[in-house]
Task: inverse folding
């Protein structure tokens, strides 16, 4: 392996090439090919100074083609990285150290259902996908210059296919619950793991619901409520200043450059929308049209079951050989085993050090479904009924989809395909294939599940929660309630909300649980005779994770020392390290401070924190965001792909989310709010967006980071829906001429 690393470094001279020159917006747009596109008619793309495009075409089939060109222009390097990730081909880009990652990704097999999906797609969706791919490939072959990161990553220019797009779609639909399972697989052999697992499940089931059972359309599996990452809220016309409904959303994803989202507007004879798209997917995932707006949060729905297939009765192996191409080294062949219940994930090299039985993964995403058609129908929907019906073909990943319209109506749909067996098996870490209750049958579609339309309260809030309690449950791990309460408290405190209130709401950095924990520590610490100055700092903290807050910093440090001491003695070091990274840690500490064992460790924890904390220590000193490309993670060489370090507010459990693990030292956040969207349905042009980063993924571009500078100033970009407004406000335009006019 030493030779492999040496070869990688010697062969990686592309990583050492000089950074490309700075490019103005006009220079970047000059690279866009204008002639010879396979269009049916002439088209125009309007651009503002941030390279936010508004696509105007005269034929519906030209819209996905132009969108493919726009995506390739702004993010072809990112799209290639996503294509390689989804297909388990990272070693082609980064060398032998990622062979095991590729092997593990091949086992997960995101492209497994692509052929079956294609076979079931309606003809219009097939045409839409083919035209989108045509647009990507036309840009790839005709652009004046391709992204320099393609050379750095060693990407060969190969044509894109519809299968590539469908596989990226499955990657985007990954079951986020896998993270919980894979982490727990690593600590499952610990003595107190079962106690922790039951506690984590109970904590997940205590999160706040979006609406009451009486508000929905219950079916036989649903009973009473539960209290339930991203944030989304809709405000009915009865509570909005305009009298029309309001939509606000801020998706949470990994914080890296370029951003996972792209802001786009478009108009054709039968489509007109503005919103957030994801490079590699040809639909508007979050946004609005003339009549409605839509947004959502991940439900953390149970769309997977991990089975123990140790018994030969439930293991009929189906093996295939996979070829892994390796940059700077020898290619490798690996064997992948499948079973009747799904791929054998215990074979993954990334789990090789974990003691596991033979485990198979049953995932809804390995079966065909049609998310593209669902969102194309949402993009065209004009009414609540059309919006709700659109998700009949949708399966993964489960989403809380919120709705708002021009007439002031609001609603929420559970968008997923759900097998009740996945919910029944959730209490068992590994399901039993012999148990009839754990065997999947015909799933329930979104139209079978509860929904809510025009609730009495006049608003709906979603923060990665599930809509209602069910038996069996739709989800296993809910998020803490802090973000839900923070949003609801703001909405209920104002009689009539406007866009300005929603903007302030998205910047909220208050955590109720952290505030309560600080008050409790201050009370108990004061009684125990802890340093009065520290006690006063905690007692006086307002619960806001502002950059300049000393109280937030002190709580973090005290909580770190207390959690490290208490949970090490209760659960052991491995489980403690897991808990220190969990957003549940604040709730756990608040609960456990009721016990004498935990309280006895508070005084020495405060004393230890005193050594790490000084009068000048603020939250921003501990909490930073490092803006970097994926290549920025490479030791030493990667520093040139890092674009600054910024102190940031927010925490794991605030609306302005900046996820972090407990620590007594400075650390970089890697996950949280990375985009914002607000629309007032009373005015087609009242749409506001913001990104961490910028629109353009081309290194050196003027638009690589410009939107993040606005984000730091709490500013948004207004994106009109009306074409006449775009013509007046967007200063750049590109006319695309068809190959055969």
Result:
């Amino acid at each position: 392996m030493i030779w492999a690393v040496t070869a990688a470094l010697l062969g990686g001279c592309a990583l050492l090439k000089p950074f490309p020159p700075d490019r103005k917006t006009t220079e970047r747009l000059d690279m866009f090919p204008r002639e010879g596109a396979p269009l049916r008619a002439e088209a125009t793309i309007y651009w503002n100074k941030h390279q936010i495009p508004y696509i105007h075409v005269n034929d519906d089939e030209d819209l996905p083609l132009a969108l493919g060109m726009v995506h390739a222009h702004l993010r072809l390097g990112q799209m290639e990285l996503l294509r390689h990730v989804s297909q388990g081909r990272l070693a082609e880009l980064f060398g032998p150290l990622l062979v095991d990652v590729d092997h593990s990704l091949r086992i997960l097999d995101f492209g497994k259902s692509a052929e079956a999906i294609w076979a079931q797609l309606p003809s219009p969706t097939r045409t839409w996908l083919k035209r989108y791919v045509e647009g990507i490939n036309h840009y790839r072959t005709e652009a004046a210059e391709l992204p320099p990161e393609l050379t750095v990553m060693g990407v060969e220019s190969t044509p894109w296919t519809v299968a590539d797009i469908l596989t990226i779609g499955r990657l985007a639909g990954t079951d986020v619950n896998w993270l919980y399972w894979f982490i727990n697989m690593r600590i499952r052999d610990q003595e107190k793991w079962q106690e922790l697992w039951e506690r984590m499940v109970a904590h997940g089931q205590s999160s706040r619901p979006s609406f009451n059972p009486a508000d929905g359309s219950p079916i036989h599996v649903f009973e009473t409520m539960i209290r339930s990452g991203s944030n989304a809220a809709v405000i009915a016309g009865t509570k909005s200043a305009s009298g029309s409904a309001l939509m606000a959303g801020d998706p949470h994803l990994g914080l890296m450059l370029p951003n996972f989202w792209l802001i786009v507007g478009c108009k054709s004879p039968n489509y007109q929308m503005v919103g957030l798209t994801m490079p590699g997917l040809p639909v508007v995932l979050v946004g609005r049209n003339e009549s409605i707006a839509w947004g959502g949060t991940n439900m953390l729905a149970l769309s997977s079951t991990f089975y123990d297939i140790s018994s030969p009765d439930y293991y009929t192996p189906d093996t295939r050989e996979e070829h892994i191409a390796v940059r700077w080294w020898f290619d490798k062949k690996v064997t992948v085993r499948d079973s009747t219940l799904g791929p054998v994930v215990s074979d993954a090299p990334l789990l090789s050090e974990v003691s596991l039985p033979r485990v198979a993964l049953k995932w809804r995403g390995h079966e065909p479904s049609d998310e593209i058609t669902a969102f194309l129908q949402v993009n065209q929907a004009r009414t609540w009924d059309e919006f709700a019906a659109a998700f009949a073909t949708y399966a993964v990943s489960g989403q809380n989809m919120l709705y708002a319209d021009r007439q002031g109506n609001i609603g929420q749909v559970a968008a997923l395909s759900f097998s009740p067996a996945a919910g029944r098996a959730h209490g068992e870490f590994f399901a039993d294939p012999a148990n009839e209750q754990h065997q999947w049958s015909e799933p329930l579609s979104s139209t079978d599940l509860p929904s809510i339309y025009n609730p009495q309260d006049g608003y709906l809030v979603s923060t990665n929660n599930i809509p209602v309690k069910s038996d069996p449950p739709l989800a296993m791990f809910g998020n803490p309630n802090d973000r839900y309460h923070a949003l609801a408290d703001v909405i209920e405190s104002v009689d009539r909300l406007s866009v300005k209130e929603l903007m302030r709401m998205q910047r909220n950095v208050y955590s109720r649980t952290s505030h309560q924990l600080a008050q409790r520590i201050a009370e108990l610490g004061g009684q125990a005779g802890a340093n009065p100055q520290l006690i006063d700092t905690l007692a006086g903290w307002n619960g806001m994770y502002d950059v300049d807050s000393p109280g937030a910093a002190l709580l973090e440090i005290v909580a770190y020392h207390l959690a490290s001491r208490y949970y090490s003695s209760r659960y052991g070091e491995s489980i403690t390290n897991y808990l220190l990274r969990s957003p549940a840690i604040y709730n756990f500490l608040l609960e456990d401070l009721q016990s004498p064992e935990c309280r006895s460790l508070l005084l020495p924890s405060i004393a230890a924190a005193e050594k790490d904390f000084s009068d000048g220590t603020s939250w921003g000193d501990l909490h930073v965001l490092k803006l970097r490309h994926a290549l920025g993670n490479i030791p030493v060489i990667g520093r040139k792909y890092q674009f600054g370090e910024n102190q940031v507010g927010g925490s794991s459990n605030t609306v302005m989310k900046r996820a972090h693990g407990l620590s007594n030292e400075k650390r970089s956040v890697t996950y949280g709010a990375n985009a914002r969207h607000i629309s007032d349905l009373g005015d087609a042009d009242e749409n506001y967006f913001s990104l961490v980063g910028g629109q353009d993924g081309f290194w050196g571009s003027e638009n690589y980071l410009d939107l993040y500078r606005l984000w730091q100033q709490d500013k948004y970009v207004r994106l009109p829906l009306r074409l006449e407004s775009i013509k007046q406000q967007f200063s750049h335009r590109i006319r695309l001429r068809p190959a055969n006019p």
User: Anything to note?
Assistant: Residues 62-86 form the longest helix (25 residues). Residues 627 and 643 are 5 Å apart (CA to CA).
